[in-house]
Amino acid sequence: MYIDVLTQIGAKAVDQTFIYHVPSNLEKNIKVGIRVKIPFGKMVIEGFVTKINNDVTYDKNKIKDIIEVTDINPVLNSEMISLGKYMGDHLLCSLVSAYQVMLPKALKAEIKSNIKIKYNKYLRRTKSIEEIDNYIKNCKYQSQINLLCKLKEGDILLTSMTSSVKTILKYNLATIVYEEAKRYNYEGISNYKKVTLTDEQSSIVNEVVSSFNTSSTYLLYGVTGSGKTEVYMSIIEEALKKNMTAIMLVPEISLTPQIVGKFISRFGSVIAVLHSKLSDTERYDEYRKITNSEAKIVIGTRSAIFVPFSNIGVIIIDEEHTSSYKQENHPRYNAKDIAEWRSQYHKCPVVMGSATPSLESFARAGNKVYKLLTLTNRVGTSTLPSVQIIDMKDEVKKGNFILSSTLKNKIKEKLNKKEQIILLLNRRGYSGIISCKECGHTEKCPKCDIAYTYHKTSNNLKCHYCGTSKPYISKCSNCGSTNIKDYGLGTEKLEEELHKLYDAKIIRMDVDTTSKKGSHQKIIDDFGEHKYDILIGTQMIAKGLDFPLVTLVGVVSADASLISPDFRASENTFQLLSQVSGRAGRSENKGEVIIQTYNPDHHSIILSAKHDYLSFYKEEMKMRKILKYSPYYYMILIGISTKDYNLGFKEANKISNYLHTTLDKETIILGPTMANMFKINNVYHYQIIIKYRTDDKLLDSLKFIDNMYKQNNKIEVEVDFNPVKI
Ligand code: ADP
Ligand code: ZN
Ligand code: ZN
To answer: Which residue range forms the structural domain that includes residue 67?
Structure first.
């Protein structure tokens, strides 16, 4: 018997498999989708079996034997094998990278320090209750009697071999059994109680349930606190009743910790949890619950979309607008696309939910590609908070650089009332952006309407979309003021300032304070128990948190996200402001939100303050149309990276010229330009952006380029379909 083996080595060149011979004693163990250990040059490596051949045409003397078989059951089932091929074809990723990304580390084809299954040892009764009782009658050792009484009720977890245990084993009253241990324990607090759905919620649940067994996509648009999570849970419950399984995707478990608690308290042990904060062993244990059919529901982040459930009843994607559903490195897949593929395969609906749907999804709902479901109101007596916009230009004149007088006074008022406060300061992408302290003007590229980025090394302002640049300016091009600064205030400085102003208990949540395992959950639980009055944080605090005592949310600066050099800056700002506002007033107490900004007239700020998604959608779509962005145009980003500055420049131009000659006249090719992060670790990054509506020649041209550079190890060329960040 001969087999084709797909390995990580050689993957970059082509998706070439290597032929190996299977010694006859191992033949019966060979199946497609298992891993085998093989000699490769001087190394021993692991690979996936992709094909079984009875004979080969090569010189058989040159074919080596496999060393051993790793798995009894395939780690890749037939669905995963075809999905991998689809990904390879449509994302231009290597086949092996597609397979590896589907699996937890323990099951990837790679030689690693062992991630082993842990077994617990149990003492189990082998005799009838009567026989045990007879023994107890004649026994004079209390410790043995205690043990036997416990044994009558069920298995006992053995931590040490006491003399009583030994005696009981000697008399054959019990035996030792081993069972797989589960190392992941959810440690959050949950006081979840099941609710009765409102009519609006029930009719949505019914609609989705009636489409079980068809591959359709729903967009559930519902304001924050309108009860989407309850809807998801009821849909999943119906799927379980019909003996089907369910996948529930969340953006990042550390961002939505409370949802896991709700799911675990409602569904218990049929849940497997998969997210990036798990250790490799915990992840392996959770994954095995899926492969051994113990779990019926998986709740997890992006890669949980690949779990090998059979008979999927529904796939739910919460906060569908979140960029983390897209993987930012090879293979650059979007979990939403994988969900659609699996929905076709399993004939099941996909439900994507959000209070601020991505423009792409809402446009698809408008075109009836997705079915739109709407939840219009918050549940019960709670209403959306009132939002006040503060113009920081006026405040700066009064000497208030960080906190406006309004926000300062409100914080004091809430502290006096013993209510809680959340302050958002999003640092992402704010460094190096130039804006005027007098008039709030930000220097932007006229062709792209994107903020220029300040490049310190060349002292230039550059547009990362079309490549135009101009020298750094010392005067505002709008009002002529020289009071221009690169904008900068971080959460730590904010914390310091608050301590100066108030005698309050303050906790900060950002990447620096949550790197330790469990620290994130602890901050949330502590804040939930009112051990702190004020929670400061980055966008990490914007999503999914439900604290009834929070009545004030302050956005210290709405501008950082607004002026980031990305065509989605307005959309991201609208989403962020809406989400963080949604944290206020989630119970009887009315919520208040204060947004500080130098751009109080910007439509994303005004409309988020009015909770007016529909107007924002219309306004933003107009801009996208004029500037030819998604969703009017599809976008592709070709990334070219190399240590050789000149080679990068030359090859990037070559690629661009090639595209100009092969693609449709209507297709727009921008660049090559230097990428946003041009030099990282001495590697230079160039990029070309393609905008198109339809182009029959596109995929073939991209495949051609991809193939041309695959064997070249001086330069890397990667194609990113529908990039979420530019
Ligand atoms: P969303 O996911 O849309 O932000 P949630 O599902 O978290 O909203 O619901 C917000 C709050 O309202 C939660 O505390 C939830 O328990 C409660 N809730 C949702 N639906 C109902 C209902 N039908 N009856 C009572 N309370 C509900
Ligand atoms: Zn100005
Ligand atoms: Zn430009």
So the answer is: 2-107
**For residue 525, what are its two tokens?**
């639980």
Q: Is residue 705 part of a domain?
A: yes
Burial classification of residue 190, based on how many CB atoms lie within 10 Å of its CB (0-12 exposed, 13-18 middle, 19 or more buried): middle
How does DSSP assign 459-511, residue by residue? TEEE-TTT--EEE--SS-TTT--S-EEE----HHHHHHHHHHH----EEEESG
Quote the mean pLDDT of the chain: 89
Mutation test of ligand 1: which of 205, 230, 248, 259 has the most ligand atoms closer than 8 Å to its C-beta? 230
What is the rounded distance in angstroms from the CA atom of residue 650 to the CA atom of residue 633?
A: 28
Is residue 164 in some structural domain?
A: yes
What are 469's strand-pairing partners? 462
∠ CA 435-437-440 to the nearest 5 degrees?
Answer: 60
Q: How confident is the model at residue 432 (pLDDT cuts 50, 70, 90)?
A: very low
Count Cα neighbours of 85 within 13 Å in the Cβ-side half-sphere: 7
Number of domains in the chain: 5
Quick one: average pLDDT of 610-615?
95
The pLDDT of residue 581 is 87
Q: Which of 91, 12, 11 is nearest to 719 (CA)?
A: 91
Same domain assignment for residues 167 and 45 = no
pLDDT band at 465 (very low <50, low <70, confident <90, very high): low
Instruction: Note whether 557 and 505 are same-domain residues.
Output: yes
Look-up of token digits 């994107």: 450
Mutate to test the pocket of ligand 1, among 191, 192, 195 (most ligand atoms within 8 A of CB): 195
Listed residues 593, 623, 653: the one ending a domain: 623
For a pLDDT cut of 90, what percent of the chain falls above it?
60
pLDDT 10s digits, 214-226: 999 999 999 888 9
Q: Which residues line ligand 1 (CB under 6 A)?
A: 195-198, 201, 222, 224-230, 379-380, 546
State whether 394 and 303 are in the same domain.
Answer: no
What is the per-residue pLDDT across 302-334, written as a single tens digit (0 to 9) for each?
Answer: 999 999 999 999 999 999 999 999 998 889 999
Q: What is the CA radius of gyration of the chain?
A: 29
Centre of ligand 3 to C-alpha 184, Å, is 48
**Number of Cβ atoms within 10 Å of the Cβ of 419:** 18
CA distances from 663 to 265, 660, 666, 686, 701 (A): 54, 6, 8, 20, 8
Q: Which ligand places an atom closest to the C-alpha of 475?
A: 2
Q: What integer is the mean pLDDT of 60-77?
A: 93
**Do 260 and 357 fall within a single domain?**
yes
CA of 465 to the centre of ligand 3 (A): 5
